[in-house]
Amino acid sequence: MGNSESQSVPTDPRFVSASRAFTHHELEDLRSLFDSLAAKSQSNAQYISPSVFQSYFGLHGPLGDRMFHLVTQERKDQHLTFEDLVVAKATYEKGTRDDIEEFIFRLLDVNGDKFVGRSDLESVMISIFKDILCIKDNEARSSSDQGIVNIFLNAANFSMHEEGCTEESMSFEDFRSWCTHAPSARKLLGSLLMPPDSGIWYLVSGRPGSQIPNLLTSNDIDPSILLLRKEYAWHIGGALSQHELEDWMLLYHSSVNGLSFNTFLGNISNHQGPSVLIIKDKEGYIYGGYASQPWERHADFYGDLKCFLFQLNPKASIFRPTGANHNLQWCAINFSSADIPNGIGFGGRVSHYGVFISANFDQGHTFACSTFGSPCLSKTNRILPEVIECWGVTQGTVLGKNDAVKGTILERFKEDRHMLNMVGLANSSE
């Protein structure tokens, strides 16, 4: 009879290789997920349809279409097989940093023309705000309006001039640079194949990159005067760990409390945790810094490497410490020496800070600084503040697998790093 074994189609070698990235239990979980979604697709358990896929993962519009196209290996047959799901998740969630970022870079090409242009990135950011984060603003400041989308587009470089492309496009290095300056977008784009409500213990607040802090103010504060809108808080939060993204309380607002250094210090004196300082100057630029330590009197720089600078308008960028020096946070109060300028600031060197507001709160400056690798944050070096705002960050507890509080810095670091490893971010903060 010869070989009596049934003749079957050879297994896709990509699937065989991808399967090795998962444990037996993980593969069983993926099979259960596939069977459930295939049943909803009414496909005789053969495949997942685009509508069921997009509904389950909460991906809609051009971004949802593009993700389905990539997961099905660009076959265009509208059939997502079990093999497709395993190969995509192995690459996107368990691959090397290069594997993951190449997948995300391809995902941004929502037009499918092999180029990532400004229009592609615009479609992705609109989808993030409208369909994934679902930010709603009662003050008629729509998340998807061109202004808020543009600040993220303005942070990107489009350095490629390709024949046949109707607009300038991103190189892969442009993309990686944008990811560094927009870490919230990078985290979220690296976690889209996790269901929005996964129930995983370390993702209790949803996908990495999806959490927006609760912005708490007193009832008599008019929301329209606030600089920190939800989209800005999401952007800043991309550089923070999960337990720093719970409640942010407004401690000081110059339109309510007056442009006064003493009032500022008095209002924040009872808050012993980190804070977010935001400045809008008379040029209309909005920027600031994350202070990891309380604002307290020092004759020299202090703080730690959790400090960073950010821009919010006209572009959205994060600037983390480079390690060039430890001139991180500055708070000088009632010093009489010209060598110790009274006021608050971040980075740079004395009298040449990354950003600085004098003790009169009526002027300051911003210079390019090696501390954070940041440029001048405004139109000119001189700052004339129009609004100054400070938010206190309430650090929540980190829950372990059994909901036990893990309070040590080392344990919190391990949990944050575990989360980042899941989306390929643990070693991508350069």
From TrEMBL:
<feature type="domain" description="TLDc">
    <location>
        <begin position="226"/>
        <end position="394"/>
    </location>
</feature>
<feature type="domain" description="EF-hand">
    <location>
        <begin position="96"/>
        <end position="131"/>
    </location>
</feature>
<protein>
    <recommendedName>
        <fullName>TLDc domain-containing protein</fullName>
    </recommendedName>
</protein>
<dbReference type="InterPro" id="IPR006571">
    <property type="entry name" value="TLDc_dom"/>
</dbReference>
<dbReference type="InterPro" id="IPR011992">
    <property type="entry name" value="EF-hand-dom_pair"/>
</dbReference>
<keyword id="KW-0106">Calcium</keyword>
<dbReference type="InterPro" id="IPR018247">
    <property type="entry name" value="EF_Hand_1_Ca_BS"/>
</dbReference>
<dbReference type="GO" id="GO:0005509">
    <property type="term" value="F:calcium ion binding"/>
</dbReference>
<dbReference type="InterPro" id="IPR002048">
    <property type="entry name" value="EF_hand_dom"/>
</dbReference>
<dbReference type="Pfam" id="PF07534">
    <property type="entry name" value="TLD"/>
</dbReference>
